[in-house]
Amino acid sequence: MFEMLLQWLPLAVSVLAVFIAWLMVKRERLARQALEGKFAATETVLKNARHQHESLLKQFNELRAGTMGMSQKLADMAQHLEVIADRQGEMAMQDPDGKLYSRASKMVELGADVNELMEECDLPKAEAELLLRLQQKMAQPRRR
């Protein structure tokens, strides 16, 4: 029996080794499939991230272009406003009579009479009376 056991022992060990090798190959295949699935999922996530990155980059570039356009428009408007302010200042300097009439109008609001307007603002009597009447007319409440 010992001899028979010795004869069949190498065959049993060989069959056992083949079975263990088969189990290990099967486990390795399952592990490889799991890794391939994870790799495919990672590739999908990476592809989506790249797509989102491209989309965000495009949106950023559009916002940057819009911001640059708005900055240029604001700079143009500021320059235009400076030109208008300069022109307004020049016009104010060129119209000294306007200052006199503004001063006369303020004096009428404060209660000055025709003689005071004539003396202080060098206005003719007719202009002083006209200005006084206009101010009084504007001060009256409107009737419907």
Brief synopsis:
The chain has 144 residues and is mainly α. It has helices at residues 2-94, 96-109, 114-121, 125-139. The chain is rod-shaped and about 155 Å long.
Description:
With 144 residues, the chain is mainly α. The protein has 4 helices and no strands. Helix 2 (96-109) crosses helix 4. The longest helix has 93 residues, at 2-94. The mean pLDDT is 88.
Number of strands: 0
Our estimate of the beta-strand percent is under 5%
Average pLDDT confidence is 88
Helix content: over 70%
Structural class: mainly alpha
Task: Report the end-to-end length measured between terminal Cα atoms.
Answer: 136 Å
Put simply, the count of helices is: 4
Spans of at least 5 consecutive residues with low confidence = none
Question: How are the secondary structure elements laid out?
Answer:
Layout: H1 2-94, H2 96-109, H3 114-121, H4 125-139
